[in-house]
Amino acid sequence: MKFKAFILSILIFIGIFILGIVIMNLAMKFIVKNQSEVEVPTLIGLDYEEAKDLCSEKNLYIAVSDYEYHELPKNVIVSQNPYSGKSVYENRTVYVVLSLGSKKVTVPNLTNYYVDDVSQILKKHDLKIGLTEFEYSSSIQQNYVIYTIPRAGTSVMAGDSVRVIVSSGSDPNAPDSLLDYPTDTDDEAYEY
């Protein structure tokens, strides 16, 4: 008897759950059907307050998703999602990234730093690691930085990427010293 009551309770719960899903789907279709579509305006390059007014006119919301250093002045929109020109339903939120303004930083000297440590060091200087390239070096140990582009000491904008040139060790095809280079006179000197 208890088992039948338990099964009946579970079936009623599942029925209510399925009925709830059906009602929610119908309600959402009704809500969406009664909303009109609008085109997302171009917000990049606008001050946040201007963008807020423009979104309000189109029945859209605006929210800041992130901040980043940029050449654009402070509180100017750097990027947006969804992008401009896209058709969306009214009352949708447009997420924007705001500029913190430009900030100049100096590229640190990374020569002889282990390649795996470079990203953290650059992050501390408000920079990002860019392309990593490898070159032979007889003076810098393998997997250690030879130099960067831009070079150490250069003033750049915060958030810029720095290209890192890393040693792949000594060139196995390079002669060890000048004595290893063959000369024309060597052959003659050993002919007796």
Task: Summarize this structure as a short list of keywords or feature phrases.
disordered C terminus; 4 helices; 3-stranded mixed beta sheet; alpha/beta; 27% strand; flat
Compute the CA-based radius of gyration.
32 Å
Helix/strand-derived category reads: alpha/beta
Which percent range fits the helix content? Answer: 25-40%
Identify low-pLDDT runs.
178-192
Q: Total number of β-strand segments?
A: 10
Number of helices: 4
Strand order of the largest sheet: 2-5-3
- The N- to C-terminal Cα distance equals 116 Å
Shape: flat
Characterize the biggest β-sheet: 3 strands, mixed
Please state roughly what percent of the residues sit in beta strands, choosing from under 5%, 5-15%, 15-25%, 25-35%, 35-45% or over 45%. Answer: 25-35%
Instruction: Please write the string of helix (H) and strand (E) elements.
Output: HEHEEEEEHEEEEH
Report the average pLDDT across residues.
87
